Amino acid sequence: MSSIPNARERGDSPGSHRIATLTRIRSVLQAHGKLGTDAMQLSENDDLYAAGMTSLASVNVMLALESEFGIEFPDQMLNRSMFISVAAIEAALRKAASA
Amino acid sequence: MGLIDTIRGKVVEVASRHADDVDRQARFPIETITALREAKALSAAVPRELGGLGCGMRELAGMCAALAGACGSSAMVLAMHHIQVACLARHGMSSPELREYLKDLVAHQYLLGSMTSEVGTQGDTRSSVCAVERTAGRFTLNKDATTASYCAYADAILVTCRREPQAAASDQVLVLVRREDCTLKQTTTWDTMGMRGTCSPGFRLESSGPEQHVLPGSFADSSAQTMVPYSHILWASLWWGIAADAVNKAGQFVRGEARKTPGTIPPGAARLAEASAQLQALRHNWLALAAEFDELAQGAEGLQTLHSMGWALKMNNLKVNASEGAPQVVHKALQIIGVLGFKNDSKFSVARQYRDTLSASLMISNDRIVGKSASMLLVFKDE
């Protein structure tokens, strides 16, 4: 079961739900991404690897995202481009939740 | 006659003749490199459209394996060179200057060295302290490398560094530094247990050259799609080649014993059978992954696969298996041969083979690789 409730279930406006998801992603990055910059200030499409995330740190980010959102990423999603930005992670979460 | 036949014949003959001297003196195997140049082997990995042979991984691995049976250091130099050429050929083709350089490499049979290690990164090739600076069409790059593969003998060196002075440690690029664009100051020595002919001490590099010699794209891509697979597959093939040479000597020894006492199987024969089985497993591991790589390298989807965790694990597993297996097989060969294998001046000596294969688990430390695999397995399910 997905722990990402859709906007209608929560009664939120679609925009506010999306912002909440992005904030949760940024918090995970803040805690585990070992970025050289403040994750909360990242724009959606900033390259996380250019911001200093190593491949080792990206594994911890994946683990923390699985825990935070209660999902499991299938193996074929475990590649560099899937976790390259906040927006890419959001898309990956949606894809994993619907898998 | 194809290139692989020339390597198995002429080049192996030259390399064998000088292998002991190269090892004893820890000197560069210049005779082998000259023979490789004459055979046009240094442009084997250059695409055909630029005048090279366009060899795939299987062919390159076959060359390294064949040469390793004669001289491990020579095979390692050839492997390192192929890895650098592959990085240029697979990631520099959009640059007219780099294409031109590859054409020159074909014509002059340039030897490419590698400088990925650095003081202060603790052996992590995916992070850099130094950064390339670009001004007025020129790059400036200075690096303090802990081990730099045969750089004193290379015509050019591929150097990893940060993209720009403000870039993060892992945001790296590769830079082609020609010999004439740099000064090299040797900072440490290379008096090692094995692989003595690779002459890879520390160097302080100071360089400046045309900006176009900074490879396009990022090292994250060229590392995953090229440097890592080429390194692990070619190294595995050459470690196997060294181990196979030792087992070959053990086989000669056992057959000699058998001739002395027809009708009785010599005591070493059963161990020889075990060594043969281990050797086969090692060989099929790199052969299969070389074939898989050649298929993946064809299309865009394959290139994505090279970025996947599943492929990274396969490469890590190959590296660990090959580097642990090769010295074990040589050890077995030594047990079969006995004292004659232990004596440096015996024709059955496996001393150089043993010492050379002991480098395998250390060049990119297996502990680091296993650590990375361990962390990947926390999310990877191998479905």
Summarize this structure briefly.
The complex is a heterodimer of chains A (99) and B (383). Chain A is 52% helix and 0% strand. Chain A has helices at residues 7-10, 14-32, 55-69, 86-98.
Describe the structure.
The complex is a heterodimer of chains A (99) and B (383). Chain A has 4 helices and no strands. By secondary structure, chain A is mostly helical. Chain A has a single domain, classed as ACP-like (Non-ribosomal Peptide Synthetase Peptidyl Carrier Protein, Chain A), CATH 1.10.1200.10. The longest helix of chain A has 19 residues, at 14-32. Chain A is globular and about 30 Å long. Chain B is of the alpha+beta class and 383 residues long. Chain A binds chain B through residues 35-36, 49-56, 59-60, 62-63, 66, 72-76, 78-81, and chain B through 126-127, 163, 167-171, 218, 220, 224, 304, 307-310, 312, 372, 375-376, 378-383.
List keywords for this structure.
heterodimer, A: mainly alpha, 4 helices, 52% helix, B: 383 residues, alpha+beta, Butyryl-Coa Dehydrogenase, subunit A, domain 1, Butyryl-CoA Dehydrogenase, subunit A, domain 2, Butyryl-CoA Dehydrogenase, subunit A, domain 3, 4-stranded antiparallel beta sheet, 12 helices
Structural class of chain A: mainly alpha
Q: How many β-strand runs of chain B?
A: 7
Determine and state the CATH class of chain A.
Mainly Alpha
Q: What is the number of independent domains of chain B?
A: 3
CATH architecture of chain A: Orthogonal Bundle
CATH architecture of the largest domain in chain B: Up-down Bundle
- Give the C-alpha Rg of chain B: 21 Å
Instruction: Write down the CATH topology of chain A.
Output: Non-ribosomal Peptide Synthetase Peptidyl Carrier Protein, Chain A
In terms of DSSP E residues, the strand content of chain A is: under 5%
Strand order of the largest sheet of chain B: 2-3-7-6
- Topology pattern of chain A, helix = H, strand = E: HHHH
Domain count of chain A: the total is 1
